[in-house]
Design brief:
The protein is mainly alpha-helical. The chain is built from three helices and no strands. The radius of gyration is 28 Å and the shape is elongated.
Length: about 70
């Protein structure tokens, strides 16, 4: 019960081959994750192009304001 069977070793080899296998799968996945994080941070840094003061009022509110004033 304390030793690994052939099936355990095969599963371990498949996982290792997937993670460290050809064409840099792990580095590709990590590179894509880094690009996503970088894009998210850049999106947070950008200022919104329109402020709340410059937005037009919705039609119903505009009509109410025109009727009052």
């Amino acid at each position: 019960m304390g030793s690994f069977s052939i099936w355990h070793w095969l599963i371990v080899l498949v996982v290792v081959a997937f993670v460290f296998g050809g064409r840099g799968k792990l580095s590709g996945i990590m590179g894509d994750a880094a690009k996503g994080i970088r894009a998210f941070r850049d999106g947070l840094k950008e200022e919104p192009t329109t402020s709340a003061e410059n937005k037009p009022l919705p039609t119903a509110e505009r009509e109410k304001d025109e009727a009052r004033g």
